């Protein structure tokens, strides 16, 4: 029992480390536009995002249950703890690599890919719940397309409404409104992303027979929410720079449109209990808004590099998790 508790402690530490890294890796998702338009100072924006992420994280648990039971049945795995350790190590490594290069990749893709790869190698293909994996994959694929479309529509409508207004006055008003939309975006980020670590910890608790259901204990909710909030408080300035300045020149009205589009997709996924890539949703919303503003202004070479990272994250994370499992176990 002592060994089991010790190993479980390692899993919990790694899961919270993933959540912490997810926090500073994905901080840019919520605040990049408000920082780039000077609606908020970076430090103020980061602290606000940390508080709203924490609040969002403790409010919902549906995504955690999906993560905990849709890719594999934790109760059916004899080596579930080892599988989780390999998956978390792979996801953490990929997050750190993409953060180092300032690429806004998906923590969700990394975790789902890593968990699937670890189960595949550690237990066998028969233990992967392919139907659940494919349902998650569909949401991860289609949510960026929906976010792009919503961003494009919102920006097109705003252009039509404010076409004859003074650009200076319009942007002054939307700069103030961006404070609210940044807070909303950070809240929705917490409702979805923090639950991924909660789901992994709950997966480990079930596979270790410390509990029988995928219900998330209160201490897990508070721990994951705190880890993400602390990570968010550090901030990922490299990714903030990419999101806020390198895709296209963002004005307050553009930032408002992108924030609303991204937040609507993320929160809809949370209500449906589905994990979604907050990075993909917000980046795609930015691309949609930029295209509505003027297609030629979008730096498609930067967007292309981001999109490539989206496609390679799941297979690379899966292969990395399988390799780590083989090496360690």
What's the helix and strand layout?
Elements (H helix, E strand, L loop, with lengths): L1 H35 L5 H16 L4 H8 L10 H21 L6 H16 L7 H32 L5 H41 L10 H17 L2 H10 L5 H20 L6 H17 L5 H29 L1
InterPro entries: Phos_transporter (IPR001204)
Main location: membrane
GO molecular function, one term: phosphate transmembrane transporter activity
Structure description:
This protein has 329 residues and is mainly alpha-helical. The chain has one domain (2-328). The protein is built from twelve helices and no strands. It has helices at residues 2-36, 42-57, 62-69, 80-100, 107-122, 130-161, 167-207, 218-234, 237-246, 252-271, 278-294, 300-328. The chain crosses the membrane at residues 6-24, 44-63, 83-103, 110-128, 140-162, 302-325.
């Amino acid at each position: 029992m002592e060994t089991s508790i010790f190993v479980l402690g390692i899993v919990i530490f790694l899961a919270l480390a993933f959540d912490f890294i997810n926090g500073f890796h994905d901080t840019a998702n919520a605040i990049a536009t408000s920082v780039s338009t000077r609606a908020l100072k970076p430090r103020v924006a980061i602290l606000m995002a940390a508080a709203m992420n924490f609040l969002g994280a403790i409010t919902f648990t549906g995504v955690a249950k999906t993560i905990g039971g849709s890719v594999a049945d934790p109760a059916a795995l004899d080596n579930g703890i080892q599988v989780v350790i390999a998956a978390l190590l792979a996801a953490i490594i990929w997050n750190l690599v993409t953060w180092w290069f300032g690429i806004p990749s998906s923590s969700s893709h990394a975790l789902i890919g890593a968990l699937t790869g670890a189960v595949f190698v550690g237990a066998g293909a028969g233990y992967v719940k392919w139907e659940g994996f494919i349902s998650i994959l569909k949401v991860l694929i289609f949510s960026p397309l929906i976010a792009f479309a919503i961003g494009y529509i919102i920006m097109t409508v705003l252009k039509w409404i404010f076409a004859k207004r003074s650009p200076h006055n319009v942007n002054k008003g939307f700069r103030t409104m961006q404070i609210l939309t940044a807070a909303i975006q950070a809240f929705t980020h917490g409702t979805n992303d923090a639950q991924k670590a909660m789901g992994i910890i709950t997966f480990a608790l079930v596979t270790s027979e410390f509990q029988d259901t995928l219900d998330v204990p209160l201490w897990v909710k508070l721990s994951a929410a705190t880890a993400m909030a602390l990570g968010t408080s550090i901030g990922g300035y490299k990714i903030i720079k990419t999101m806020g300045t390198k895709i296209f020149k963002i004005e307050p009205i553009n930032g408002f449109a992108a924030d609303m589009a991204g937040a609507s997709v993320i929160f809809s996924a949370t209500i449906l209990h589905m994990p979604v890539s907050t990075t993909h949703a917000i980046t795609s919303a930015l691309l949609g808004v930029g295209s509505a503003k003027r297609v030629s202004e979008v730096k498609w070479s930067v967007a292309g590099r981001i999109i490539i990272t989206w496609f390679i994250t799941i297979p690379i994370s899966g292969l990395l998790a399988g390799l780590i499992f083989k090496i360690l176990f």
